[in-house]
TrEMBL record:
<dbReference type="InterPro" id="IPR021109">
    <property type="entry name" value="Peptidase_aspartic_dom_sf"/>
</dbReference>
<keyword id="KW-0732">Signal</keyword>
<protein>
    <recommendedName>
        <fullName>Peptidase A1 domain-containing protein</fullName>
    </recommendedName>
</protein>
<dbReference type="InterPro" id="IPR001461">
    <property type="entry name" value="Aspartic_peptidase_A1"/>
</dbReference>
<dbReference type="InterPro" id="IPR032799">
    <property type="entry name" value="TAXi_C"/>
</dbReference>
<dbReference type="Pfam" id="PF14541">
    <property type="entry name" value="TAXi_C"/>
</dbReference>
<dbReference type="InterPro" id="IPR032861">
    <property type="entry name" value="TAXi_N"/>
</dbReference>
<feature type="signal peptide">
    <location>
        <begin position="1"/>
        <end position="20"/>
    </location>
</feature>
<comment type="similarity">
    <text>Belongs to the peptidase A1 family.</text>
</comment>
<dbReference type="InterPro" id="IPR033121">
    <property type="entry name" value="PEPTIDASE_A1"/>
</dbReference>
<dbReference type="Pfam" id="PF14543">
    <property type="entry name" value="TAXi_N"/>
</dbReference>
<feature type="domain" description="Peptidase A1">
    <location>
        <begin position="147"/>
        <end position="482"/>
    </location>
</feature>
Length: 486
């Protein structure tokens, strides 16, 4: 009898942690087939605010040195894998004060969102030559660039940290001679030291594919401006990149001689957007337009991953169609039909998340935005439902962009309602508690990690993506959500 009672207790007891996202498939509007509540471990979450280096104690240990890179050419259906690390893990951005680090991240996030919305509205800034002398602004105070990878540039390969950005296309690095460069952790790339560097002529078809390209002394010039005032300007070139242990030749990159803004620490940016000039677009048939990433969860001390190639697409993932917007071909849109809290669908019209024929609205997946943004009416309904389900928890004043916060000081675990995205076609993505209730200081203040959008655009940010394998099948036009593989 005692054994039967013990088994019954174990079956009925709720889980203490949710360690990965859950993806289920059901008809739209049906009850969500998973528990309406889960438990968030408070002490574990607060401990995660204390930074420690991932895996190894030094950058030298984390990555292969330039002289140790074993190169092999890329081939059809190749698989290429890189470590992925959050900028806060790197030595040049460590902070002892979690609150200060958090506030800096929110400032970057607000500027990132404003940049995306400005690009969609056609209000991208144009800069004249006179702007070249502008002050270099620290990336810790402006812009985005949340996740970094390490790749080799040139021949011989020079290892460089690169920001990954799923919302832009150009691959670029800071280059010597550098008349205006921000601080980076590695020596600035010098094309004179690379045997594979080759400038692109103005008449080249590659030059014609670059927006805002120009010509000077027969060489193709490029300029990429970001909505927050950051930019990179220089010459376009073909160069060899070493990604992991795989060599990719004749990649069109920007060699930036004048750079400003949001990329401090990194050597440049690895554009992973949907355009032809992104790294994904340039690899094309070599990888089938497929790539996958898993953003490392906060406080794990481990790496995330970024992989290219069709063989990285997971079996058993929930796949939904990618949507394209001709006004923003770099962005990855997906269909979202609704939101769920505590096993109940929030009463929000599907039209709220629809990408219309004019290219307005819609839902974008973005690695550079931290906090998911929702149209104001949808956010209010979503937030109010969550607040009603957590009325038993002590409230705290709002912090930064968050208006729904809780004082969980002294708690060991708390019971919170599940939060879900209803994806078009039936799949439901249910988030771990740590992906929507996050610590904003070391005193036990936790906030609901969503915010209203200043436009009709919805953005699924990287906090909500953490610990989930997200895969893009560009050839077939799908995005997949799989299990935790970080």
């Amino acid at each position: 009898m005692l054994i039967l009672l013990l088994l019954l207790f174990l079956l009925l007891s709720p889980p203490q942690f949710v360690i990965s996202a859950t993806v289920t498939t059901t008809s739209a509007g049906h009850a969500i087939p998973f528990p309406p509540f889960e438990h968030l471990n408070i002490k574990q979450s607060i401990a995660a605010t204390k930074l420690r280096p991932p895996a190894s104690s030094s950058n030298a240990d984390q990555y292969t040195a330039d002289s140790e890179i074993t190169q092999k050419p890329i081939s059809h259906n190749s698989t290429v894998k890189l470590h992925l690390v959050h900028r806060d893990k790197l030595a040049f951005s460590w902070r002892n004060d979690h609150r200060r680090r958090f506030e800096s991240r929110m400032k970057r996030d607000a500027r990132r969102v404003a940049s995306l919305i400005r690009r969609l509205s056609g209000g991208g800034a144009a800069y004249e030559v006179s702007d070249f002398g502008s002050e270099v602004i620290s990336g810790m105070e402006q812009g985005s660039g949340e996740y970094f990878v390490r790749i080799g540039v040139g021949s011989p390969a020079r290892s460089q940290y690169m920001v990954i950005d799923s919302g832009s296309d150009i691959v670029w690095v800071q280059c010597q001679p550098c008349s205006q460069c921000y601080h980076q952790s590695d020596p600035v790339f010098d094309p004179a030291d690379s045997a594979s560097f080759s400038g692109v002529s103005c008449s080249s078809s590659v030059c014609e594919r670059v927006e805002n390209s120009g010509c000077h002394a027969g060489r193709c010039k490029y300029e990429v401006s970001y909505g927050d005032g950051s930019y990179t300007k220089g010459t376009l070139a073909l160069e060899t990149l070493t990604i992991g242990h795989t060599v990719v030749q004749n990649v069109a990159i920007g060699c930036g001689h004048m750079n400003r803004g949001m990329f401090v620490g990194a050597a440049g940016l690895l554009g992973l957007g949907g355009g032809s000039m992104s790294l994904v677009g340039q690899l094309g048939g070599q990888t089938g337009g497929a790539f996958s990433y898993c953003l490392v969860s906060r406080g794990t001390g481990s790496f995330g991953s970024l992989e290219f190639g069709r063989s990285v697409l997971p079996v058993g993932a929930a796949w939904v169609p990618l949507l394209r917007n001709s006004r923003a071909p770099s962005f990855y849109y997906l269909g979202l039909s609704g939101l769920g809290v505590g096993g109940t669908r929030v009463p929000i019209s599907e039209d709220t998340f629809r990408l219309n024929e004019l290219g307005d609205g819609g839902v974008v997946m973005d690695t550079g935005t931290a906090v998911t943004r929702l149209p104001a009416a949808a956010y209010v309904a979503f937030r109010d439902t969550f607040m009603a389900e957590t009325a038993n928890l002590p409230r705290a004043p709002g912090v930064s962009i968050f208006d729904t916060c809780y004082d969980l000081n002294g708690f060991v675990t708390v019971r919170v309602p599940t939060v879900s995205f209803f994806l078009s076609g039936g799949p439901i993505l249910t988030l771990p508690a740590r992906n929507f209730l996050i610590p904003v200081d070391e005193r036990g203040t936790f906030c609901f990690a969503f915010a209203p959008s200043p436009s009709d655009l919805s953005i699924i940010g990287n906090i909500q993506q953490e610990g989930i394998q997200i895969s893009f099948d560009g050839s077939n036009g799908y995005v997949g959500f799989g299990p935790n593989v970080c």
